[in-house]
Each structure stands twice: as C-alpha cells, then as structure tokens.
Amino acid sequence: MATLLRSKLSNVATSVSNKSQAKMSGMFARMGFQAATDEEAVGFAHCDDLDMEHRQGLQMDILKSESGEEGAEPPLEGDIHYQRDGTGPLPPSGSKEACSELSGQGKPKITAWEAGWNVTNAIQGMFVLGLPYAILHGGYLGLFLIIFAAVVCCYTGKILIACLYEENEDGEIVRVRDSYVDIANACCAPRFPTLGGRIVNVAQIIELVMTCILYVVVSGNLMYNSFPNLPVSQKSWSIIATAVLLPCAFLKNLKAVSKFSLLCTLAHFVINILVIAYCLSRARDWAWDKVKFYIDVKKFPISIGIIVFSYTSQIFLPSLEGNMQNPKEFHCMMNWTHIAACILKGLFALVAYLTWADETKEVITDNLPSTIRAVVNIFLVAKALLSYPLPFFAAVEVLERSLFQDGNRAFFPNCYGGDGRLKSWGLTLRCALVVFTLLMAIYVPHFALLMGLTGSLTGAGLCFLLPSLFHLKLLWRKLLWHHVFFDVAIFVIGGICSVSGFIHSLEGLIEAFRTNAED
C-alpha cells in the first residue's frame, strides 16, 4: 500500500511538473520574456521568484489540489494567475521537477537576439532620464562611471551565470541551479541553507517597491512641470496618478498589462531620440567648459547610485539564460547589449548636459521648451503608469508566497480562501502597498535621491557585491588569478561606492523628508 501511494505521488508530481513547464513555456513564447523586463528589472521577481524554500512550502498544496482532478483539462498556456484557482498556485519554473524538463524538446526557447532585446529593455528604460543629472555632479568622472558600470555589470552577469553550473562526475559542465536565490542558498549551505535566499528576496522586494515609488514620483513631477500654470501641486498630481493605479490591487494576472510592454518600450526609445535631436539642434551653444573633472563630493555618491541603478538586470539573468536556444551565446549577447547601452547612455547624458549645463534638472525632459515638454512628458507618464503594475505584482507575489503561502513556515494565515479567492484583508494589504508608494512619493518627491538610494543599496548589492562574492565562494578552486583579482576588486570598490552612496542619499532623503513634513 505504501509503495502504491509513493508511486501515485510520484506520477502526480511529474504531471504537475509537465503542466507547470508548459504554462511557463507559453508565457515565454507569447511575451518573449518582455513583460517581465520592461523596465530596469521591474519584473525581476516575476521572472525569478524561484526561491527553493518557497517552492518546497507550496509543493504539498499543489499535489493535493492536483490529485483530486487528474482528468481535468490543463490550464491555458500563458495564463499567469497570481490568484489561485481550483488547481492551486502556479509552481515556478525553477523547481527541481521543472529542472528535469528544462532541456525538453517541446519547450519553446528564445534566441540570443530576443534575450538581448529583453536585457536592453531592462538597462535602457526611462530611468536613463536621470543620467544627465549625474553628469552635473560628476563631470567627466560621471561619464567614466557610465562606462565602468557597463563593464562591471557585464562581467558580474557572466560570473553569476557561471555559478549556475558545476562539473559532474564525468567531467561535464551541467546546470545544477536555476536562479539567483538558488546560488545564494548554495553559498550559505549547509549551516544556513535558506539565509542567502532570504537576503536576495529582501533586496528584490526593496528594489521592486522603490521602483514603484519612483514611477509615482516621476509621474507627479512630469505632470507638474508640464502644466505649471494649473493650480495643482506635485503632491496632488501624485495622488491622481495613484488613484489611476489603485485598480492594480484587483488584477489577477499580467496578460492585459503585458500587451502594452513593447509599445511602451518603443515609445520610450522615440522619446530619447527626440531629446537627443533637440540637443543636437543646439550644438552651437553647448557648454563644453562646464564639463570638468571636479566633482561635488556631497552629491556625487548619489550619482553613483543613479548610474548603477540604470544597469540593474542581474536578478533575472539566470532565468533568461535558461530559456535561450543556445546558452553558449549568452556571453556574446551580454557584450553587445552592454556596449550598446554604454554608448547610448553616455551620449544621451553628455549631449543633454552640454545643452542645459548647470540648469540640468533631475528629470531631463523638464528642461525641454514648454511647447514640446507637455507632449513628451504625457507620453512618459503614460509609460510610467503602464509599467507600474509589473514591479507591483512581482513584489506582491514574493510577499504573499513568503509571508502567507509558505506552508507551515508562513508567518501569517493564508490570504486565499478555500475557493482560491483573495480574502478581503489580503486585498486590503495590496491596496495598502499602493498607498504606501504614494506616501513615500509625497513625502520624498525627489527622483534623483530615491534612485540613488536604491542603486546604492540594492543595485550595488545585486550587481556588484553578491555576484563577485558568490563566484569566489562557489568556484574559487577553479578560478585563475586574474578572475580572483577582478572579483575582489569589484567587491571592494562596489562596497565603498555602495556605502558612500547610501549614506549621502539617506542624508538627502532625511533632509527632504523633514522639509516636506514642516511644509
């Protein structure tokens, strides 16, 4: 009887794995992975919520619900439900069962060009609008940092992927891990087998929530500067933007939002081209003498965080590489995407600063003439509002799985009822998260400071510190001396930049918070 039961459970687990893999394959095939990487890794958790402890905590719920309906019709491909229906929650693609199917013949894969497009979306998003402000406080050193950050982030992306592989008994290099969280847990094992994953998840949640706050801040800022004659303050515009975003708490999946992903990205590229074209039209008035090697010691560390944040993409790279048709092309793809990003960001930041010099604002489109500023800013606001649901849902999913759906290890009761519907108090918590982003945007409406803080805290950690540390921990016996030197150098430099940028950004935010509280 026990043998039959074990055999039955094994068959059910295999069925769950196949259905889960087909569902994830449909998502990647239909969205080209774009919905998850539309902005600065705003879908990091959506693409990379592969924490093993979360998966194990959910496995029994999946088996129970599936065993009662083996003959049921499988769910539609690509229908990503965050609210569970009768079939239970969608298991992440990185589960051990799914890993066994990773190389399956029927699994759709993406080409190197499609992978490059998604990386480009992540590191060429609308937050590049803050780069000219970084040049304002850094001069030529700011330009150097744009190049340096591109080189380092490209390198750490490659070594992070190297940590996914190990040599088996036959001397073959095989993929034994599937996510950033898996790598972190492996580095902390056996003494603290889940500590690394928790740290990565916390950093991930902070970055996603801060991204949501930045969208609200930039929406209020752009609307206020587009219509300065209206009796509406920036705080009021932020409230209006949040009122538009409140329905995000009621959405069950991202299918409707993902349809706008490509259009939003293309629109942003067009806006960047328009800004550069306007700057080029004023080339005769460029203030070359304003670009100096002198730096503002107090504000330049904030610029470091801004630049690092604009390159953040590491958290979803393991999932992306695992879905490439030819993973051997990953290194080449990383090279040309970061070279292109470096050139475009450097040119954009330089020509914009040369055009407005000391008058450069935190969001560069605010410097445009009023005749075209309103049109450009309205498009940017639309893009920000359409991009907001991606990081919001990613953050909600990680929070729900870790706090409410982690089996016996959950901190709070399950926020879903027996019929799979979200409970009223669970919906209230989602709404509270939207309101929290509004409150932060109201009390600290400083785009550059928030972006610098996020880049210094989570951006530097996820892009500089952790990849180099994990690479040394997992593969140090096989590393050449120059790899060890690079890893140590990146860890030290990244740590110094992170601490310095975080302290200065935090000081600026505290001062801004006090000023707004007094007003």
From TrEMBL:
Membrane topology according to the record: Multi-pass membrane protein
Source species, domain of life: Eukaryota
GO molecular function: gamma-aminobutyric acid:proton antiporter activity; glycine transmembrane transporter activity; L-amino acid transmembrane transporter activity
GO terms classed as biological process: gamma-aminobutyric acid import; neurotransmitter transport
Subcellular compartments: Cytoplasmic vesicle membrane; Presynapse
Pfam families (alphabetical): Aa_trans (PF01490)
UniProt-listed InterPro entries: AA_transpt_TM
Membrane spanning residue stretches: 141-165, 205-224, 260-280, 300-320, 332-354, 374-399, 427-444, 450-472, 484-503
Keyword Ligase annotated: no
Keywords: Cell projection, Cytoplasmic vesicle, Membrane, Neurotransmitter transport, Synapse, Transmembrane, Transmembrane helix, Transport
Domain Amino acid transporter transmembrane: 109-505
Any one Gene Ontology cellular component term annotated for this protein: cytoplasmic vesicle membrane
Region (Disordered), start-end ranges: 67-101
Swiss-Prot/TrEMBL catalytic activity: beta-alanine(out) + n H(+)(in) = beta-alanine(in) + n H(+)(out); 4-aminobutanoate(out) + n H(+)(in) = 4-aminobutanoate(in) + n H(+)(out); glycine(out) + n H(+)(in) = glycine(in) + n H(+)(out)
Similarity section: Belongs to the amino acid/polyamine transporter 2 family.
Function statement: Antiporter that exchanges vesicular protons for cytosolic 4-aminobutanoate or to a lesser extend glycine, thus allowing their secretion from nerve terminals. The transport is equally dependent on the chemical and electrical components of the proton gradient. May also transport beta-alanine. Acidification of GABAergic synaptic vesicles is a prerequisite for 4-aminobutanoate uptake.
UniProt name for this protein: Vesicular inhibitory amino acid transporter
